[in-house]
Amino acid sequence: MMARGAVRDTARVLGYEYAIGDRISKLIPLGKQGFPMSIDKALNITPDLKQLYDTNADTKKIMSVARQIEGCARQISVHACGIVISPTTVNDFSPTQIEAGGDKIITQYEMHAAEDVGLIKYDILGIRNLSFLGQSILNVRKTRGIDINLRKLPLDDKKTFGMLSKGDTMGVFQLGSEGMTKWLKEMKPNRVEDLMVMVALYRPGPMDNISAYIDCKFGRKKPEYLHPNMEKFLSKTFGVLVYQDDILFIAIEIAGYNWVSVDKLRKAVGKKIPEEMSIQHKIFVNGCQQHSNMTKENAEKLWNLFEPFQGYGFNKAHAASYGMLSYRTAYMKANYPVEYMCALLTAESDDTEKITDGIAECRHLGIIVSSPNINLSKKGFEMEKNDKSLDKMSIRIGLSAIKNVGDIAIDMIIDEREKNGPYQSFTDFCLRVSGSKVNKRVLESLIKVGAFDTFAERNAILAGLDIIRSNIEKLSSKRLDGQFGLFDGHEDKDNSFIPLDKFPDVTPMTEKEKLSLEKQLLGVYVTENPISKMLEHFQGASLPKIKDLLDKPDNTVSKFTGIITKFKTILTKKDSSKMAFITLTDDTGSLEAVIFPKAFIQFENLLIENQAVYIEGKISNRNDEKSILIDSISLTLPENTKRFDFVINIPQSTSQSQLMDLNRLLKNNPNGHRGVIIMPTGKEITLPYGVKYNSDLQKEIDKILRS
């Protein structure tokens, strides 16, 4: 039970009005992940709360009682992946019960008490990345005849580290988040140890040390050691405390701990036990002074370096396991991208958002993703030869990705195809695969996503569907009698009858309708990504793309365009005013945004899904995740906005040599197109010469900026 909850519950039980407990609890600041706020700490850092406590008897009574229940378990919850092991029946060590709403047996003791009574606790993590890592190896064996041994991968693969340094981390274990990608682009990892450091430090608390590690790695800063003997443990991490192991070795070497006493320190730090940390603090500081002749000031400084590890500090073995898995997934993606992305899409096929991200990444890599096809698609995502795609292989979307098409129907379709050959026409399909499992709803979904495009146009098939289905029985009976007059047909080489399709003349389905149905039934746009077209009326504006905003510092004023792809309206707790959380998307990525009540009132009528909008707001960087706090929304650009034939946004990590290469490329392609370069600072540089701008040149520009 956290501080705020303890205060609210205490006030309620003591019979006070809800508003009293609510008022006190709201004066208690929110803690950070891994660093919960306590009542005592809140009193020390919040003057208004301290004044209320000192002057109001009810407040003092409530908070005094709340202190006694703070930190206690309030209700039953189950660890997502925690199991306990005992030498005899678990009931010899702990009372047990059945979990609420389930059938699992759980301990009634919480995790610390369970360990204290002698149970061994394990966290068994089910990591999906292992599934598609394994599948990617099978895919490589299938496509290239190569057997990959993950234990024998070269650990200095330039292609792998180059990909990570550019920030191409989508689908890489532990490294795919926005914040992690930003740090990797700065770190430019070139050894597995760098990845170990990143997965260990990218946690609440130790995260503050990432910039120091990077500065020391590139010589911008010298490693600092509070005691010379620390260098032997910290030289590989440039003097930065990274692992829990570092704490243990330093405690033994500098503060005089032995392996028995240092285990108590490990538990205090690793299990986030405040009382034990307080005891260890005194032991450690005294030990540093007596064992290593450190000043008390330096001993305190060294202890303060330990405190962030009360968050989620990793031990080195944990970091090594994660770092190696990160490297292996990155290696497979960098060297076998089609096989890896196909495995990833298959593993994530039940998550529309991840499939959308995966297909976008395929486009970024140059991998063609093809629509479902009744004769080519299998159940999941599959690779197929395609000279126009990366590595001459594309990825075909499986039938299981289509809404309303169930497993039984898919199995019938594939089994019939494998048994009797490809379907020759839409009518042939209906004759061979019919019944309640492949009903009209299934057929309509298959038609709408283009599974029958090789036979006829989508609207034509939809228009003729009822007629064909109503005639199937007649055709089936006439086939038995040898009469084929109902539909024109022909015999193939083995004399079997192939019915031909006849459809009414109708207006073909528009590209916009196709895309809408793909999004509706597949959850993604396959034929093309319509975002660019939807933003066409903003084209040429000297504005940054969404991916460029991700490198901007906190509170940066930003102006950009995007599509409202998702929004959720909520009511504020304070006065039930409306506000909204919005997802904004352009052809480079997505960004979460918040519109607070004052702005919401003014712009509510513009909050429509798939609306193209111009946004002004400020960058917010909370928990290393970027969002935008919206000040204004418009359907048009401001009148004074400059327009150009093309805009080049320069990423934050671009080097001087890359800029020189870019300048050389543009000058070598002269013509009359006007362009502007937007630097990471937001400064606009209008090109003084015309450029022959086209899609091929843009690919060359992207190649330079990503190199």
Automatic annotation (TrEMBL):
Domain DNA polymerase III alpha subunit finger as annotated: residue spans: 129-291
Q: Name one GO cellular component term.
A: cytoplasm
Q: Where in the cell is it found?
A: Cytoplasm
EC class, as a word, reads: transferase
Name any one GO molecular function: 3'-5' exonuclease activity
In this protein, which residues make up the domain named DNA polymerase helix-hairpin-helix motif? 366-458
Organism annotation: Candidatus Shapirobacteria bacterium CG10_big_fil_rev_8_21_14_0_10_36_6
What name is this protein filed under?
A: DNA-directed DNA polymerase
Q: Which residues form the OB domain?
A: 562-634
Q: Which UniProt keywords apply?
A: DNA replication, DNA-directed DNA polymerase, Nucleotidyltransferase, Transferase
InterPro entries listed in its UniProt record: DNA_pol3_alpha_NTPase_dom (IPR011708), DNA_pol3_alpha_thumb_dom (IPR041931), DNA_pol3_finger (IPR040982), DnaE2/DnaE/PolC (IPR004805), DNAPol_HHH (IPR029460), NA-bd_OB-fold (IPR012340), NA-bd_OB_tRNA (IPR004365)
From which domain of life does this come? Bacteria
Catalysed conversion reaction: DNA(n) + a 2'-deoxyribonucleoside 5'-triphosphate = DNA(n+1) + diphosphate
For this protein, the record's Gene3D superfamilies field holds:
1.10.150.870, Bacterial DNA polymerase III alpha subunit, thumb domain (1.10.10.1600), Nucleic acid-binding proteins (2.40.50.140)
Report any one BP term from Gene Ontology.
Answer: DNA replication
NCBIfam families attached to this UniProt entry: polc
- EC numbers: 2.7.7.7
List the lineage, top down: Bacteria, Candidatus Shapironibacteriota
Q: Which residues form the Bacterial DNA polymerase III alpha subunit NTPase domain?
A: 2-126
